[in-house]
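Mods, move this if it's the wrong board.
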Amino acid sequence: MESKKIVAAIDVGTLKSKFEIREFDDEFNSKVLYKDKPLTVLGRDLDKTDNIIIEKSIVKTIDALKDFKQKMDEYKVVKYKSVTTEAIRKAKNANDVLERIKNETGIDLEVLSQEEEAKLLFESVAKDFPDNVIAVSDIGGGSVQVVIGKGEKIYETHLFKTGTYRLQEEFSKTHHPSFEELEKTKDYVIEQLKPLESSNHKPEYVVYGTTNIIEFLETMGLKLQDRKGHIGDHPYTINVEQLWPLYTKIIGLSYEDRMPMYEKEPYYMWAADKALMNIIQICTYLGCDIIVPTNNNISTGILYNLAKNL
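Not the wrong board. Structure tokens:
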């Protein structure tokens, strides 16, 4: 008799807290039962508060986690894992915040290193590219990871501090960044990502991930090409040259004027140009112009690992 494994993952990031419940069968095929990603901004204003997480962000995160716990009870989740990343790694009051979250929600957040983040995303993607060298890039609010490998083998891991929210907070002093601010941001990204130029492996694809990237690109009117012989969650490709006009269009608008471009997640548009800047430069340094968008994230890797270990 086939058994069903219902598992959940919580990922408290710099900007959002991502939550997903999936049901797996014995062959590890899965379906999403529930997803949510409220804006909890645990990493808000760390540069202005001497790296102290502010009370408002703590309360937002606790409220979200209480909602997640209620949903896990409702869906009869048998096992879950909860993690947090860049905001907590950076915060001076991290231990106090983690203890308070555990006391008020019962959820014990595990602090992932950047290396662990990178490995989880790579593992969730690589199964669909068994015969290809790929570079998998997760562009988050606080940090960016690039992992190069093939199949189950990781060749190189590169870790950067060029996350979208981090760039926004450090370089954009107004809601309509000036030419000088944009140039400083670009110069910083180019300099930080420079180690990729010395990579010993040339990927066939750069797999660019965040939870909503396929929908975002389609909403922006970009034409995605079918990937011949695709397997699993990665049916499309896009050329890096297609991203330049979109980047140019976005930087011409204030944050508020960008928001209607993506009504489902309007605040994503505030730093969408920073995400595009990262991925364009990653492709440039790696000499790869074919991007495979992925909606997988570290939660995807966590969920598969949970199901396999039940």
